[in-house]
Amino acid sequence: VDTDVSDGRGDARRERAAVQRAEALATIHEAARVVLRGHSVFDLSGAVVATAAGRTRQMIHLYYPSMHEMIFALADELTVAFQGAGSDLDVDDPRWPYLYAERVADVALADPVPNRQVLLVSASQGRGMAAATAETNRQIVPALEKRNPVAADKASWLTLTLFRGVLFTWAAEKLSDEELRRSLHDVADVVVAQRRLWSEESGGGEGR
Q1: Can you tell me whether residue 59 is helix, strand or coil?
Q2: What is the CATH number of domain 67-208?
Q3: Entry pTM
Q4: Where in the chain are the domains?
Q5: Do you know which InterPro entries this protein is assigned to (predicted)?
Q6: What SS3 state is found at 90?
Q7: Are 114 and 74 in contact (CB under 8 A)?
């Protein structure tokens, strides 16, 4: 007898499993951040995170067999937050580069102690932010093209490269909130000025 699987029960099970996984990861990530707010990454362990999360150590290791994987996941999560920071901004606003810089600063400073640590450790382990910035580039290029089609891809590369440099400097040297915001605004200045030069060289007038 053929089994009718068109009733959606399989899809429903997969959906429940996906929801449960997302909820478990959110709990683990927040527990790891709680630990990092008062300690260092060297204090992270399955047992410590399990205690903070109110879960079993076996459950933590099910999702993260090593703490490096957990740090990478937190770093990727942070990068995704940077990606979406300017998604609702008006790209036609002349202040767009500066508003986006402010949003990036807001994300970094929302939980600064853990954010600094995961950025530094992930970079030292060869992860950096490059592992998750391809999507950022896909989002920024269309925005820059809408403002000015000249060299939008180069402007996106310049923006991401300089932003990463500022964020890693902030993490390593523990820049103040004001210094971080000022440095990100300096990046916006550089990108705007460079785009203007590229636009003038192409005969396209002033770029933004």
Answers
A1: helix
A2: 1.10.357
A3: 0.78
A4: 1-65, 67-208
A5: Homeodomain-like_sf
A6: coil
A7: yes
